[in-house]
Amino acid sequence: MPIHSTLLTGLVCLIGVASAAPVCDASTFKSLTLFNIEVTSTAATVAHIVAGPDGQFTELAGNATPEETAAATQFCQVTIQYTHPGQNDVINTFIGLPLNASAWNGRFQMPGGGGWTAGNLLLIYGPVAAGYASTSTDAGHTENETAADWGLVSPGNTNWPALWDFAAVALDEAATLGKLATQLYFGSPPKYSYFNGCSTGGRQGHIMAQRYPDQFDGILSGAPAIAWQTFIIGMFWPVLVANILESVPPLCVLDAFTNASISGCDELDGVKDNVIATPDKCQFNASSIVGQTVQCTKPEGIITLTEKHAQLVNAIWDGPRSVEGAFEWYGLTKGTSLRALLNTTCESVDHCVPIPFSVSTDWIAVFLARNASLDYNSLTREDFDRLFRLSVDQYASVIGTDNPDLTSFRRSGGKMIVWHGLADLVVTPLGTYDYYKRAKQFDDSLDSYYKFFAAPGVEHCGGGPGLDPSSTIFDSVVAWVENEITPETVPGRGPAVGASGTREINLCPYPKVLTYIGPDPNQASSFVCQ
Ligand SMILES: *[C@@H]1O[C@H](CO)[C@@H](O)[C@H](O)[C@H]1NC(C)=O
Ligand SMILES: *[C@@H]1O[C@H](CO)[C@@H](O)[C@H](O)[C@H]1NC(C)=O
Ligand SMILES: *[C@@H]1O[C@H](CO)[C@@H](O)[C@H](O)[C@H]1NC(C)=O
Ligand SMILES: *[C@@H]1O[C@H](CO)[C@@H](O)[C@H](O)[C@H]1NC(C)=O
Ligand SMILES: *[C@@H]1O[C@H](CO)[C@@H](O)[C@H](O)[C@H]1NC(C)=O
Ligand SMILES: *[C@@H]1O[C@H](CO)[C@@H](O)[C@H](O)[C@H]1NC(C)=O
Ligand SMILES: [Ca+2]
Annotated active-site positions, please? Predict the structure, then answer.
Protein backbone atom coordinates (compact mmCIF):
# COMPACT_ATOMS: atom_id res chain seq x y z
CA MET A 1 0.00 0.00 0.00
CA PRO A 2 1.21 3.53 -0.61
CA ILE A 3 0.74 4.04 3.13
CA HIS A 4 3.42 1.49 3.87
CA SER A 5 5.80 2.67 1.18
CA THR A 6 5.57 6.25 2.42
CA LEU A 7 5.65 5.37 6.08
CA LEU A 8 9.37 6.11 6.37
CA THR A 9 9.01 9.49 4.68
CA GLY A 10 6.05 10.15 6.94
CA LEU A 11 8.03 9.48 10.08
CA VAL A 12 10.85 11.72 8.89
CA CYS A 13 8.31 14.45 8.18
CA LEU A 14 6.68 13.98 11.56
CA ILE A 15 10.00 14.39 13.34
CA GLY A 16 10.88 17.33 11.10
CA VAL A 17 7.72 19.33 11.82
CA ALA A 18 6.74 18.01 15.24
CA SER A 19 7.34 21.36 16.88
CA ALA A 20 5.21 23.36 14.40
CA ALA A 21 1.53 23.35 15.41
CA PRO A 22 -0.84 22.61 12.53
CA VAL A 23 -2.38 25.73 11.02
CA CYS A 24 -6.08 25.55 10.09
CA ASP A 25 -5.97 28.06 7.27
CA ALA A 26 -6.60 27.87 3.51
CA SER A 27 -2.89 28.60 2.92
CA THR A 28 -1.98 25.25 4.51
CA PHE A 29 -4.01 23.51 1.79
CA LYS A 30 -3.11 25.61 -1.26
CA SER A 31 -1.31 22.69 -2.93
CA LEU A 32 -4.33 20.40 -2.38
CA THR A 33 -5.32 19.23 -5.88
CA LEU A 34 -5.22 16.28 -8.28
CA PHE A 35 -3.99 16.12 -11.87
CA ASN A 36 -7.47 15.57 -13.33
CA ILE A 37 -9.38 18.26 -11.44
CA GLU A 38 -9.60 22.04 -11.35
CA VAL A 39 -10.08 23.36 -7.83
CA THR A 40 -12.50 26.29 -7.74
CA SER A 41 -12.31 27.02 -4.01
CA THR A 42 -10.64 25.79 -0.85
CA ALA A 43 -11.71 26.93 2.61
CA ALA A 44 -10.42 25.93 6.03
CA THR A 45 -12.10 26.92 9.28
CA VAL A 46 -12.13 25.71 12.86
CA ALA A 47 -15.48 23.96 13.42
CA HIS A 48 -17.13 23.04 16.74
CA ILE A 49 -19.42 20.03 17.12
CA VAL A 50 -21.37 18.56 20.01
CA ALA A 51 -23.00 15.17 20.56
CA GLY A 52 -26.76 15.17 21.08
CA PRO A 53 -28.62 12.80 23.42
CA ASP A 54 -28.86 10.28 20.54
CA GLY A 55 -25.06 10.31 20.10
CA GLN A 56 -25.35 12.16 16.77
CA PHE A 57 -23.04 15.14 16.37
CA THR A 58 -24.26 18.54 15.22
CA GLU A 59 -22.61 21.87 14.69
CA LEU A 60 -22.45 23.98 17.85
CA ALA A 61 -25.12 26.71 17.81
CA GLY A 62 -23.92 30.23 16.95
CA ASN A 63 -25.11 31.59 20.33
CA ALA A 64 -23.21 29.01 22.42
CA THR A 65 -21.72 30.12 25.73
CA PRO A 66 -17.90 30.13 26.17
CA GLU A 67 -18.30 27.05 28.42
CA GLU A 68 -20.23 25.21 25.71
CA THR A 69 -17.64 26.21 23.15
CA ALA A 70 -14.81 24.98 25.36
CA ALA A 71 -16.56 21.63 25.87
CA ALA A 72 -17.21 21.10 22.14
CA THR A 73 -15.04 18.95 19.85
CA GLN A 74 -12.94 21.21 17.64
CA PHE A 75 -11.59 20.25 14.27
CA CYS A 76 -10.17 21.83 11.15
CA GLN A 77 -12.86 21.67 8.46
CA VAL A 78 -11.53 21.86 4.94
CA THR A 79 -14.07 22.29 2.15
CA ILE A 80 -12.79 21.90 -1.36
CA GLN A 81 -14.89 22.54 -4.45
CA TYR A 82 -13.71 21.33 -7.85
CA THR A 83 -14.69 20.28 -11.33
CA HIS A 84 -13.43 17.82 -13.91
CA PRO A 85 -12.64 20.24 -16.74
CA GLY A 86 -15.02 19.67 -19.65
CA GLN A 87 -17.53 17.65 -17.63
CA ASN A 88 -19.55 20.53 -16.15
CA ASP A 89 -19.67 18.97 -12.69
CA VAL A 90 -19.27 20.73 -9.32
CA ILE A 91 -18.09 18.51 -6.49
CA ASN A 92 -17.96 19.51 -2.83
CA THR A 93 -15.64 17.44 -0.68
CA PHE A 94 -15.42 17.82 3.10
CA ILE A 95 -12.33 16.97 5.09
CA GLY A 96 -12.17 16.93 8.89
CA LEU A 97 -8.89 17.00 10.78
CA PRO A 98 -8.66 16.81 14.58
CA LEU A 99 -7.45 20.29 15.53
CA ASN A 100 -4.43 19.21 17.54
CA ALA A 101 -1.92 16.56 16.62
CA SER A 102 -2.47 15.18 20.12
CA ALA A 103 -6.17 14.59 19.35
CA TRP A 104 -5.39 12.67 16.12
CA ASN A 105 -5.17 8.88 16.42
CA GLY A 106 -2.94 8.71 13.34
CA ARG A 107 -5.67 7.07 11.28
CA PHE A 108 -8.00 8.03 8.43
CA GLN A 109 -11.63 6.94 8.10
CA MET A 110 -14.02 7.64 5.23
CA PRO A 111 -17.71 7.12 6.09
CA GLY A 112 -20.15 5.87 3.45
CA GLY A 113 -23.40 7.47 2.22
CA GLY A 114 -26.97 6.18 1.80
CA GLY A 115 -29.54 6.09 -1.01
CA TRP A 116 -28.60 8.69 -3.62
CA THR A 117 -26.39 10.52 -1.10
CA ALA A 118 -22.72 9.80 -1.75
CA GLY A 119 -21.80 11.69 1.40
CA ASN A 120 -22.03 15.02 3.19
CA LEU A 121 -20.41 17.18 5.85
CA LEU A 122 -22.33 15.67 8.78
CA LEU A 123 -20.95 12.19 8.12
CA ILE A 124 -17.39 13.18 9.06
CA TYR A 125 -18.38 14.45 12.53
CA GLY A 126 -18.45 11.01 14.19
CA PRO A 127 -15.06 9.81 12.89
CA VAL A 128 -13.41 13.18 13.66
CA ALA A 129 -14.78 13.18 17.22
CA ALA A 130 -13.32 9.68 17.60
CA GLY A 131 -9.87 11.01 16.64
CA TYR A 132 -9.76 10.11 12.94
CA ALA A 133 -8.92 12.33 10.01
CA SER A 134 -11.99 11.94 7.78
CA THR A 135 -13.50 12.86 4.44
CA SER A 136 -16.82 12.73 2.63
CA THR A 137 -18.01 14.04 -0.71
CA ASP A 138 -21.35 15.04 -2.23
CA ALA A 139 -20.01 13.58 -5.53
CA GLY A 140 -21.62 16.45 -7.43
CA HIS A 141 -25.17 16.59 -6.04
CA THR A 142 -26.62 17.35 -2.61
CA GLU A 143 -29.30 15.26 -0.93
CA ASN A 144 -31.74 18.10 -1.63
CA GLU A 145 -31.49 17.46 -5.36
CA THR A 146 -33.65 14.72 -6.82
CA ALA A 147 -32.21 12.17 -9.24
CA ALA A 148 -34.15 13.99 -11.97
CA ASP A 149 -32.26 17.19 -11.08
CA TRP A 150 -28.83 15.70 -11.79
CA GLY A 151 -29.26 12.39 -13.66
CA LEU A 152 -30.09 13.79 -17.09
CA VAL A 153 -28.28 16.45 -19.11
CA SER A 154 -31.56 16.89 -21.02
CA PRO A 155 -34.70 14.77 -21.49
CA GLY A 156 -33.61 11.42 -22.91
CA ASN A 157 -29.89 11.91 -22.18
CA THR A 158 -28.05 10.40 -19.21
CA ASN A 159 -25.60 12.64 -17.36
CA TRP A 160 -22.80 10.08 -17.52
CA PRO A 161 -20.10 12.14 -15.74
CA ALA A 162 -22.50 12.79 -12.83
CA LEU A 163 -23.22 9.07 -12.56
CA TRP A 164 -19.50 8.18 -12.74
CA ASP A 165 -18.84 10.73 -9.97
CA PHE A 166 -21.56 9.20 -7.79
CA ALA A 167 -20.66 5.59 -8.55
CA ALA A 168 -16.92 5.74 -8.00
CA VAL A 169 -14.76 8.61 -9.27
CA ALA A 170 -15.53 11.26 -6.63
CA LEU A 171 -15.17 8.69 -3.84
CA ASP A 172 -11.65 7.79 -4.87
CA GLU A 173 -10.79 11.47 -5.23
CA ALA A 174 -12.22 12.29 -1.80
CA ALA A 175 -10.03 9.60 -0.23
CA THR A 176 -6.91 10.85 -2.01
CA LEU A 177 -7.65 14.51 -1.20
CA GLY A 178 -8.43 13.66 2.42
CA LYS A 179 -5.14 11.83 2.87
CA LEU A 180 -3.20 14.62 1.15
CA ALA A 181 -4.85 17.21 3.41
CA THR A 182 -3.94 15.08 6.44
CA GLN A 183 -0.32 15.10 5.33
CA LEU A 184 -0.34 18.85 4.69
CA TYR A 185 -1.86 19.56 8.09
CA PHE A 186 -0.03 17.17 10.40
CA GLY A 187 3.11 16.71 8.32
CA SER A 188 2.58 12.98 8.04
CA PRO A 189 0.13 10.77 6.17
CA PRO A 190 -2.30 8.54 8.04
CA LYS A 191 -0.74 5.31 9.23
CA TYR A 192 -3.91 3.30 8.51
CA SER A 193 -6.87 4.14 6.27
CA TYR A 194 -10.39 2.75 6.61
CA PHE A 195 -13.72 2.86 4.82
CA ASN A 196 -16.91 2.37 6.82
CA GLY A 197 -20.33 2.31 5.15
CA CYS A 198 -23.71 0.58 4.92
CA SER A 199 -26.29 0.28 2.09
CA THR A 200 -25.05 2.72 -0.58
CA GLY A 201 -22.02 2.92 1.75
CA GLY A 202 -21.66 -0.87 1.52
CA ARG A 203 -21.65 -0.57 -2.26
CA GLN A 204 -19.05 2.19 -2.01
CA GLY A 205 -16.85 -0.08 0.13
CA HIS A 206 -17.03 -2.75 -2.57
CA ILE A 207 -16.26 -0.40 -5.47
CA MET A 208 -13.22 0.84 -3.52
CA ALA A 209 -11.93 -2.72 -3.08
CA GLN A 210 -12.70 -3.64 -6.70
CA ARG A 211 -11.53 -0.50 -8.47
CA TYR A 212 -9.20 1.42 -6.12
CA PRO A 213 -7.60 -1.47 -4.24
CA ASP A 214 -4.71 0.58 -2.75
CA GLN A 215 -6.89 3.26 -1.16
CA PHE A 216 -7.90 1.52 2.11
CA ASP A 217 -6.17 -0.91 4.48
CA GLY A 218 -9.51 -1.93 5.96
CA ILE A 219 -13.10 -1.78 4.69
CA LEU A 220 -16.38 -2.36 6.51
CA SER A 221 -19.35 -2.86 4.15
CA GLY A 222 -22.82 -3.38 5.60
CA ALA A 223 -25.89 -4.40 3.56
CA PRO A 224 -24.06 -3.65 0.30
CA ALA A 225 -26.23 -2.24 -2.51
CA ILE A 226 -24.14 -4.21 -5.02
CA ALA A 227 -25.32 -5.66 -8.32
CA TRP A 228 -26.98 -2.25 -8.64
CA GLN A 229 -27.94 -2.89 -12.29
CA THR A 230 -30.23 -5.80 -11.32
CA PHE A 231 -31.04 -5.13 -7.67
CA ILE A 232 -32.27 -1.52 -7.95
CA ILE A 233 -34.82 -2.25 -10.69
CA GLY A 234 -35.62 -5.51 -8.85
CA MET A 235 -36.82 -3.45 -5.87
CA PHE A 236 -39.77 -2.35 -8.04
CA TRP A 237 -40.92 -5.96 -8.60
CA PRO A 238 -43.33 -6.06 -5.60
CA VAL A 239 -45.21 -2.99 -6.87
CA LEU A 240 -45.16 -4.27 -10.45
CA VAL A 241 -46.73 -7.60 -9.41
CA ALA A 242 -49.29 -5.87 -7.16
CA ASN A 243 -50.30 -3.60 -10.04
CA ILE A 244 -50.54 -6.49 -12.50
CA LEU A 245 -52.57 -8.66 -10.08
CA GLU A 246 -54.65 -5.59 -9.19
CA SER A 247 -54.14 -6.57 -5.58
CA VAL A 248 -52.60 -3.88 -3.40
CA PRO A 249 -53.08 -5.09 0.19
CA PRO A 250 -52.72 -2.97 3.31
CA LEU A 251 -49.59 -3.45 5.43
CA CYS A 252 -51.36 -5.64 8.01
CA VAL A 253 -51.88 -8.30 5.32
CA LEU A 254 -48.19 -8.25 4.40
CA ASP A 255 -47.29 -8.49 8.10
CA ALA A 256 -49.51 -11.56 8.48
CA PHE A 257 -47.46 -13.36 5.79
CA THR A 258 -44.16 -12.21 7.30
CA ASN A 259 -45.23 -13.40 10.76
CA ALA A 260 -46.48 -16.75 9.46
CA SER A 261 -43.20 -17.34 7.61
CA ILE A 262 -41.22 -16.64 10.80
CA SER A 263 -43.36 -19.12 12.73
CA GLY A 264 -42.97 -21.64 9.91
CA CYS A 265 -39.17 -21.46 9.66
CA ASP A 266 -37.92 -20.19 13.04
CA GLU A 267 -36.92 -23.67 14.25
CA LEU A 268 -34.91 -24.64 11.14
CA ASP A 269 -31.82 -23.30 12.95
CA GLY A 270 -32.58 -25.36 16.05
CA VAL A 271 -34.17 -22.73 18.26
CA LYS A 272 -37.47 -20.87 18.44
CA ASP A 273 -36.15 -17.35 19.04
CA ASN A 274 -38.23 -15.33 16.56
CA VAL A 275 -35.25 -15.25 14.20
CA ILE A 276 -34.49 -17.32 11.07
CA ALA A 277 -30.76 -18.03 10.63
CA THR A 278 -31.31 -19.92 7.35
CA PRO A 279 -33.97 -17.98 5.40
CA ASP A 280 -32.61 -19.42 2.14
CA LYS A 281 -33.71 -22.87 3.36
CA CYS A 282 -37.21 -21.73 4.36
CA GLN A 283 -39.87 -23.56 2.30
CA PHE A 284 -42.87 -21.71 3.74
CA ASN A 285 -45.58 -21.22 1.09
CA ALA A 286 -47.83 -18.16 1.41
CA SER A 287 -50.74 -20.24 0.07
CA SER A 288 -50.78 -22.21 3.32
CA ILE A 289 -52.50 -19.40 5.24
CA VAL A 290 -55.11 -18.44 2.62
CA GLY A 291 -58.52 -18.21 4.28
CA GLN A 292 -57.18 -16.93 7.61
CA THR A 293 -58.47 -13.55 8.77
CA VAL A 294 -56.39 -10.55 9.80
CA GLN A 295 -57.59 -7.79 12.11
CA CYS A 296 -56.24 -4.50 10.76
CA THR A 297 -56.14 -1.21 12.61
CA LYS A 298 -54.76 1.36 10.16
CA PRO A 299 -57.03 1.24 8.20
CA GLU A 300 -59.60 -0.46 10.44
CA GLY A 301 -61.16 -3.72 9.24
CA ILE A 302 -61.03 -7.50 9.02
CA ILE A 303 -59.50 -9.06 5.91
CA THR A 304 -59.59 -12.65 4.75
CA LEU A 305 -56.31 -13.68 3.08
CA THR A 306 -56.86 -14.62 -0.55
CA GLU A 307 -55.11 -16.73 -3.19
CA LYS A 308 -54.14 -13.45 -4.91
CA HIS A 309 -52.48 -12.16 -1.75
CA ALA A 310 -50.53 -15.43 -1.53
CA GLN A 311 -49.57 -15.27 -5.20
CA LEU A 312 -48.27 -11.73 -4.68
CA VAL A 313 -46.25 -12.61 -1.58
CA ASN A 314 -44.80 -15.79 -3.14
CA ALA A 315 -43.75 -13.68 -6.15
CA ILE A 316 -42.02 -11.13 -3.88
CA TRP A 317 -40.13 -13.95 -2.12
CA ASP A 318 -39.23 -15.52 -5.49
CA GLY A 319 -37.86 -12.25 -6.83
CA PRO A 320 -38.11 -10.76 -10.31
CA ARG A 321 -38.69 -13.23 -13.13
CA SER A 322 -38.99 -12.57 -16.83
CA VAL A 323 -42.23 -13.08 -18.74
CA GLU A 324 -40.86 -16.55 -19.61
CA GLY A 325 -40.15 -17.25 -15.94
CA ALA A 326 -36.35 -16.87 -16.10
CA PHE A 327 -34.45 -15.71 -13.00
CA GLU A 328 -33.67 -11.98 -13.00
CA TRP A 329 -32.73 -11.28 -9.36
CA TYR A 330 -33.30 -12.46 -5.78
CA GLY A 331 -36.37 -11.66 -3.72
CA LEU A 332 -36.59 -10.59 -0.10
CA THR A 333 -35.97 -13.37 2.40
CA LYS A 334 -38.88 -15.04 4.17
CA GLY A 335 -39.38 -13.59 7.64
CA THR A 336 -38.61 -10.10 6.36
CA SER A 337 -41.04 -7.17 6.51
CA LEU A 338 -42.48 -6.28 3.08
CA ARG A 339 -43.36 -2.78 4.29
CA ALA A 340 -40.49 -1.00 2.54
CA LEU A 341 -40.82 -2.40 -0.99
CA LEU A 342 -44.63 -2.65 -0.99
CA ASN A 343 -45.49 0.34 1.15
CA THR A 344 -49.04 1.63 0.69
CA THR A 345 -51.41 4.36 1.67
CA CYS A 346 -55.01 3.23 2.17
CA GLU A 347 -58.44 4.91 2.26
CA SER A 348 -59.94 1.62 3.47
CA VAL A 349 -58.77 -2.00 3.72
CA ASP A 350 -59.78 -2.67 0.13
CA HIS A 351 -58.55 0.58 -1.37
CA CYS A 352 -54.79 1.04 -1.15
CA VAL A 353 -52.27 2.73 -3.43
CA PRO A 354 -48.61 1.60 -3.57
CA ILE A 355 -45.78 3.93 -2.51
CA PRO A 356 -42.82 2.46 -4.39
CA PHE A 357 -39.26 2.72 -3.08
CA SER A 358 -38.08 5.99 -4.59
CA VAL A 359 -34.47 4.99 -5.36
CA SER A 360 -35.92 2.26 -7.57
CA THR A 361 -38.46 4.44 -9.38
CA ASP A 362 -35.80 7.16 -9.80
CA TRP A 363 -33.53 4.58 -11.41
CA ILE A 364 -36.29 3.37 -13.73
CA ALA A 365 -37.57 6.81 -14.76
CA VAL A 366 -34.38 8.86 -14.87
CA PHE A 367 -31.64 6.40 -15.83
CA LEU A 368 -33.52 3.67 -17.73
CA ALA A 369 -36.54 5.32 -19.41
CA ARG A 370 -34.68 8.69 -19.23
CA ASN A 371 -38.07 10.30 -18.77
CA ALA A 372 -38.45 12.00 -15.38
CA SER A 373 -42.25 12.01 -15.65
CA LEU A 374 -42.58 8.31 -16.50
CA ASP A 375 -45.79 6.73 -15.19
CA TYR A 376 -44.20 3.64 -13.63
CA ASN A 377 -47.59 2.33 -12.43
CA SER A 378 -48.53 1.56 -16.01
CA LEU A 379 -45.43 -0.57 -16.70
CA THR A 380 -46.17 -4.04 -18.06
CA ARG A 381 -44.03 -7.12 -17.40
CA GLU A 382 -42.70 -6.78 -20.94
CA ASP A 383 -41.71 -3.15 -20.20
CA PHE A 384 -40.06 -4.28 -16.98
CA ASP A 385 -38.05 -7.00 -18.76
CA ARG A 386 -36.89 -4.56 -21.44
CA LEU A 387 -35.80 -1.98 -18.85
CA PHE A 388 -34.14 -4.75 -16.83
CA ARG A 389 -32.00 -5.81 -19.79
CA LEU A 390 -31.20 -2.17 -20.59
CA SER A 391 -30.05 -1.66 -17.01
CA VAL A 392 -27.67 -4.61 -17.20
CA ASP A 393 -26.41 -3.74 -20.67
CA GLN A 394 -25.76 -0.03 -20.09
CA TYR A 395 -24.92 0.31 -16.40
CA ALA A 396 -23.22 -2.83 -15.09
CA SER A 397 -19.71 -1.50 -15.71
CA VAL A 398 -20.57 1.98 -14.39
CA ILE A 399 -22.24 1.18 -11.06
CA GLY A 400 -22.83 -2.59 -10.96
CA THR A 401 -20.13 -3.09 -8.31
CA ASP A 402 -20.33 -6.87 -8.60
CA ASN A 403 -16.93 -7.70 -10.09
CA PRO A 404 -15.78 -10.78 -8.12
CA ASP A 405 -12.10 -10.17 -8.93
CA LEU A 406 -10.50 -8.75 -5.76
CA THR A 407 -6.96 -9.85 -6.67
CA SER A 408 -5.44 -6.36 -6.47
CA PHE A 409 -7.05 -5.69 -3.10
CA ARG A 410 -5.61 -8.95 -1.79
CA ARG A 411 -2.17 -8.14 -3.21
CA SER A 412 -2.11 -4.72 -1.59
CA GLY A 413 -2.81 -6.34 1.79
CA GLY A 414 -6.35 -5.01 2.28
CA LYS A 415 -8.82 -6.59 4.71
CA MET A 416 -12.58 -6.39 4.31
CA ILE A 417 -15.53 -7.34 6.49
CA VAL A 418 -19.01 -7.49 5.00
CA TRP A 419 -22.15 -8.02 7.03
CA HIS A 420 -25.81 -8.22 6.07
CA GLY A 421 -29.03 -8.49 8.09
CA LEU A 422 -30.98 -11.58 7.05
CA ALA A 423 -34.25 -9.67 7.53
CA ASP A 424 -33.11 -6.71 5.41
CA LEU A 425 -36.29 -5.19 3.99
CA VAL A 426 -34.51 -3.05 1.38
CA VAL A 427 -31.40 -4.85 0.07
CA THR A 428 -31.88 -8.61 -0.21
CA PRO A 429 -29.03 -10.45 1.55
CA LEU A 430 -29.31 -13.21 -1.06
CA GLY A 431 -27.43 -10.88 -3.43
CA THR A 432 -24.55 -10.76 -0.93
CA TYR A 433 -24.54 -14.59 -0.72
CA ASP A 434 -24.31 -14.55 -4.52
CA TYR A 435 -21.37 -12.12 -4.59
CA TYR A 436 -19.50 -14.06 -1.90
CA LYS A 437 -19.94 -17.32 -3.82
CA ARG A 438 -18.68 -15.77 -7.05
CA ALA A 439 -15.70 -14.09 -5.35
CA LYS A 440 -14.85 -17.38 -3.59
CA GLN A 441 -15.06 -19.24 -6.89
CA PHE A 442 -12.72 -16.63 -8.38
CA ASP A 443 -10.21 -16.87 -5.54
CA ASP A 444 -10.22 -19.80 -3.13
CA SER A 445 -8.12 -17.76 -0.64
CA LEU A 446 -10.93 -15.16 -0.34
CA ASP A 447 -11.48 -15.78 3.38
CA SER A 448 -7.94 -14.65 4.19
CA TYR A 449 -8.90 -11.05 3.34
CA TYR A 450 -12.70 -10.87 2.80
CA LYS A 451 -15.21 -12.17 5.34
CA PHE A 452 -19.00 -12.05 5.19
CA PHE A 453 -21.11 -12.30 8.35
CA ALA A 454 -24.84 -12.95 8.05
CA ALA A 455 -26.85 -11.39 10.90
CA PRO A 456 -30.07 -13.38 11.53
CA GLY A 457 -33.20 -11.28 12.12
CA VAL A 458 -31.47 -7.92 11.56
CA GLU A 459 -33.12 -5.35 9.30
CA HIS A 460 -31.50 -2.79 6.94
CA CYS A 461 -28.16 -1.75 8.50
CA GLY A 462 -29.45 -2.56 12.00
CA GLY A 463 -32.57 -3.02 14.08
CA GLY A 464 -35.11 -5.85 14.19
CA PRO A 465 -35.41 -8.76 16.65
CA GLY A 466 -32.11 -10.35 15.61
CA LEU A 467 -28.39 -10.20 16.39
CA ASP A 468 -27.06 -6.81 15.32
CA PRO A 469 -23.26 -6.47 14.99
CA SER A 470 -23.26 -2.84 13.83
CA SER A 471 -22.09 -1.18 17.05
CA THR A 472 -18.76 -3.04 17.30
CA ILE A 473 -17.99 -4.68 13.96
CA PHE A 474 -15.78 -1.79 12.78
CA ASP A 475 -13.45 -2.58 15.73
CA SER A 476 -12.98 -6.06 14.22
CA VAL A 477 -11.77 -4.47 10.97
CA VAL A 478 -9.22 -2.33 12.86
CA ALA A 479 -8.02 -5.33 14.90
CA TRP A 480 -7.63 -7.41 11.73
CA VAL A 481 -5.62 -4.68 9.95
CA GLU A 482 -3.47 -3.47 12.82
CA ASN A 483 -3.05 -6.54 15.04
CA GLU A 484 -3.62 -9.34 12.54
CA ILE A 485 -6.52 -10.64 14.63
CA THR A 486 -8.57 -12.62 12.13
CA PRO A 487 -12.28 -12.19 12.87
CA GLU A 488 -13.44 -15.81 13.13
CA THR A 489 -16.73 -14.53 14.57
CA VAL A 490 -18.18 -11.08 15.38
CA PRO A 491 -20.56 -10.30 18.25
CA GLY A 492 -24.23 -9.65 17.45
CA ARG A 493 -26.60 -8.12 20.00
CA GLY A 494 -30.37 -8.27 20.29
CA PRO A 495 -33.31 -8.66 22.64
CA ALA A 496 -33.08 -11.68 24.95
CA VAL A 497 -35.46 -14.58 24.26
CA GLY A 498 -38.20 -15.12 26.84
CA ALA A 499 -36.59 -12.61 29.21
CA SER A 500 -35.95 -8.89 29.48
CA GLY A 501 -32.58 -7.41 28.57
CA THR A 502 -30.29 -8.32 25.70
CA ARG A 503 -28.29 -11.29 24.50
CA GLU A 504 -24.92 -11.32 22.75
CA ILE A 505 -24.27 -14.19 20.33
CA ASN A 506 -21.29 -14.57 17.97
CA LEU A 507 -22.16 -14.41 14.29
CA CYS A 508 -20.65 -16.84 11.80
CA PRO A 509 -18.62 -16.20 8.65
CA TYR A 510 -20.58 -17.34 5.60
CA PRO A 511 -21.01 -20.10 4.42
CA LYS A 512 -21.05 -21.30 8.04
CA VAL A 513 -24.45 -21.02 9.70
CA LEU A 514 -25.25 -19.99 13.27
CA THR A 515 -26.62 -23.21 14.78
CA TYR A 516 -28.17 -23.81 18.19
CA ILE A 517 -26.82 -26.66 20.33
CA GLY A 518 -28.45 -25.52 23.59
CA PRO A 519 -29.31 -25.27 26.32
CA ASP A 520 -29.95 -21.49 26.61
CA PRO A 521 -30.72 -19.23 23.61
CA ASN A 522 -29.39 -16.24 25.59
CA GLN A 523 -25.92 -17.80 26.06
CA ALA A 524 -23.28 -17.43 23.35
CA SER A 525 -21.93 -20.91 24.21
CA SER A 526 -25.26 -22.42 23.12
CA PHE A 527 -24.48 -21.64 19.48
CA VAL A 528 -21.86 -22.97 17.07
CA CYS A 529 -20.90 -22.13 13.49
CA GLN A 530 -21.30 -25.06 11.15
C1 LIG B 1 -5.43 21.55 21.75
O2 LIG B 1 -6.75 22.03 21.58
C3 LIG B 1 -7.30 22.59 22.76
C4 LIG B 1 -8.73 22.92 22.45
O5 LIG B 1 -9.40 21.76 22.07
C6 LIG B 1 -6.50 23.79 23.19
O7 LIG B 1 -7.04 24.33 24.35
C8 LIG B 1 -5.06 23.37 23.43
O9 LIG B 1 -4.27 24.50 23.71
C10 LIG B 1 -4.52 22.65 22.20
N11 LIG B 1 -3.21 22.10 22.52
C12 LIG B 1 -2.17 22.23 21.72
C13 LIG B 1 -0.91 21.55 22.16
O14 LIG B 1 -2.22 22.86 20.69
C1 LIG C 1 -30.90 20.93 2.25
O2 LIG C 1 -32.07 21.63 2.62
C3 LIG C 1 -32.16 21.88 4.02
C4 LIG C 1 -33.52 22.49 4.29
O5 LIG C 1 -33.75 23.58 3.45
C6 LIG C 1 -30.99 22.80 4.42
O7 LIG C 1 -31.04 23.04 5.80
C8 LIG C 1 -29.68 22.11 4.07
O9 LIG C 1 -28.59 22.98 4.34
C10 LIG C 1 -29.64 21.72 2.60
N11 LIG C 1 -28.47 20.92 2.35
C12 LIG C 1 -27.57 21.24 1.43
C13 LIG C 1 -26.38 20.35 1.35
O14 LIG C 1 -27.70 22.17 0.67
C1 LIG D 1 -46.88 -9.55 13.36
O2 LIG D 1 -45.96 -9.66 14.44
C3 LIG D 1 -45.71 -8.43 15.11
C4 LIG D 1 -44.58 -8.66 16.09
O5 LIG D 1 -44.82 -9.80 16.88
C6 LIG D 1 -46.99 -7.97 15.77
O7 LIG D 1 -46.77 -6.74 16.41
C8 LIG D 1 -48.05 -7.79 14.69
O9 LIG D 1 -49.29 -7.46 15.29
C10 LIG D 1 -48.22 -9.05 13.87
N11 LIG D 1 -49.12 -8.72 12.76
C12 LIG D 1 -49.96 -9.59 12.25
C13 LIG D 1 -50.85 -9.09 11.18
O14 LIG D 1 -50.01 -10.75 12.62
C1 LIG E 1 -47.55 -22.90 -3.07
O2 LIG E 1 -48.70 -23.66 -2.95
C3 LIG E 1 -49.59 -23.55 -4.07
C4 LIG E 1 -50.89 -24.22 -3.72
O5 LIG E 1 -50.65 -25.50 -3.19
C6 LIG E 1 -48.89 -24.14 -5.29
O7 LIG E 1 -49.72 -24.00 -6.42
C8 LIG E 1 -47.60 -23.37 -5.52
O9 LIG E 1 -46.86 -23.98 -6.57
C10 LIG E 1 -46.73 -23.37 -4.27
N11 LIG E 1 -45.64 -22.42 -4.49
C12 LIG E 1 -44.41 -22.67 -4.13
C13 LIG E 1 -43.41 -21.57 -4.39
O14 LIG E 1 -44.07 -23.72 -3.61
C1 LIG F 1 -44.21 4.19 3.94
O2 LIG F 1 -44.60 5.45 3.45
C3 LIG F 1 -44.83 6.41 4.46
C4 LIG F 1 -45.42 7.65 3.80
O5 LIG F 1 -44.58 8.09 2.78
C6 LIG F 1 -43.52 6.68 5.18
O7 LIG F 1 -43.72 7.60 6.23
C8 LIG F 1 -43.00 5.38 5.77
O9 LIG F 1 -41.73 5.58 6.36
C10 LIG F 1 -42.88 4.32 4.67
N11 LIG F 1 -42.50 3.05 5.28
C12 LIG F 1 -41.40 2.39 4.98
C13 LIG F 1 -41.14 1.12 5.72
O14 LIG F 1 -40.59 2.77 4.13
C1 LIG G 1 -42.75 10.24 -20.45
O2 LIG G 1 -43.68 9.58 -19.64
C3 LIG G 1 -44.97 10.13 -19.71
C4 LIG G 1 -45.85 9.43 -18.70
O5 LIG G 1 -45.74 8.03 -18.84
C6 LIG G 1 -45.51 9.99 -21.13
O7 LIG G 1 -46.77 10.60 -21.24
C8 LIG G 1 -44.55 10.64 -22.10
O9 LIG G 1 -44.96 10.40 -23.43
C10 LIG G 1 -43.15 10.10 -21.92
N11 LIG G 1 -42.23 10.84 -22.75
C12 LIG G 1 -41.51 10.25 -23.68
C13 LIG G 1 -40.61 11.12 -24.46
O14 LIG G 1 -41.56 9.05 -23.89
CA1 LIG H 1 -34.61 -19.48 15.10
Answer: 199, 424, 460
